[in-house]
Amino acid sequence: MSFHLTSILYFVVLIITLLPQNSDGSLNPKFEACEAKTCGNNQTISYPFYIEGIQEPFCGYPGFGLSCGNDGFPFLNMSNAKYMIHQIFYNNNSMRVSNAVFSTPNTRSSCLRRTHNLTLSGTRLALAPNQRELILLFGCDMHGKNTIGCSEENKTSSVVAMNREDQNLRFSLMNCKGGVVNVTVEDEVRGVQEALRRGFVLIWTVSDCNKCRNSGGKCGFNTDIFSFRCYCPHDTHARKCSQG
Ligand SMILES: *[C@@H]1O[C@H](CO)[C@@H](O)[C@H](O)[C@H]1NC(C)=O
Ligand SMILES: *[C@@H]1O[C@H](CO)[C@@H](O)[C@H](O)[C@H]1NC(C)=O
Ligand SMILES: *[C@@H]1O[C@H](CO)[C@@H](O)[C@H](O)[C@H]1NC(C)=O
Ligand SMILES: *[C@@H]1O[C@H](CO)[C@@H](O)[C@H](O)[C@H]1NC(C)=O
Ligand SMILES: *[C@@H]1O[C@H](CO)[C@@H](O)[C@H](O)[C@H]1NC(C)=O
Ligand SMILES: *[C@@H]1O[C@H](CO)[C@@H](O)[C@H](O)[C@H]1NC(C)=O
């Protein structure tokens, strides 16, 4: 009899101690899902970015899905081309990227493949100020101070880098049959090849995450209502987590 009573009491106490944790203590699954991740290097990936297949799209802003390269770097598709993300600066909404063609070593040859023009209109991305625009001319029938390498499509021809204002541009255009593309670089102090490898800086303009992050939330986006969301430990808000 007393044995039964103690075990029943024990059971009741057990249920009482478990109950509050189940009703109040359960975490918002979206808060848990939007934990920052990496592609393997030490770059953290969080809003407005998300890694496709690893993080949920609701953890990022539409169009900011990344993929991971074998080298641990994240990649972003822009204008149907792959761009390597060297570093993300969450403090000033910017990142340094480079066209993967210039930054991933080509094992078959050291020649440069022709790339695309990057078009940012209609996206949430823009070039940061104080960067330089260059023109690359492919398939050139000449070698000179502006030559930066051979052309992948025809290895006996060259690739030439020029400023748009260069007085020799018209002459070069006549001698280059492989097409031209605009490229952006930060500076050319260590040469054009190195500048292309290092890439350039892009700024993003999307709903700001700071208020939410500073209130202990994780930022995200709901594509059904096309709105920013702040995932708090126990619920979801429009801007930031309520205090207390
Ligand atoms: C970590 O990232 C910093 C830039 O944020 C970089 O300079 C450093 O080399 C990285 N360290 C490792 C071990 O990858
Ligand atoms: C980028 O484009 C490639 C094909 O060009 C595709 O396989 C990949 O899933 C895309 N990645 C993202 C993050 O959209
Ligand atoms: C943001 O800050 C980093 C250094 O923290 C700097 O390299 C980068 O150029 C800055 N971005 C812009 C747009 O100024
Ligand atoms: C390759 O480039 C060289 C030098 O510009 C040129 O003489 C040759 O005709 C090109 N070959 C083809 C197949 O276009
Ligand atoms: C890139 O843009 C320029 C105009 O600025 C154009 O002449 C050129 O054909 C474009 N290149 C490609 C590969 O589309
Ligand atoms: C190439 O750059 C020039 C200015 O440097 C610009 O007028 C032109 O629109 C750009 N073309 C493309 C396709 O981005």
Residue stretches low in confidence (pLDDT < 50, at least 5 long) are: 12-23
Structural class: alpha+beta
Oligomerization status of the protein chains = single chain
Number of helices: 6
The helix fraction, in percent, is 10-25%
Distance between the termini: 47 Å
Bound small-molecule species: 2-acetamido-2-deoxy-beta-D-glucopyranose
- Tell me how many strands there are: 16
Give me the Rg, rounded: 26 Å
Shape: elongated
Membrane topology: Single-pass membrane protein
InterPro entries: WAK_assoc_C, WAK_GUB
Pfam families: GUB_WAK_bind (PF13947), WAK_assoc (PF14380)
Enzyme class: transferase
Structural write-up:
- By secondary structure, this protein is α+β, with helices and mostly antiparallel strands.
- It is built from six helices and 16 strands.
- Strand 5 (74-78) and strand 6 (81-89) form a beta hairpin.
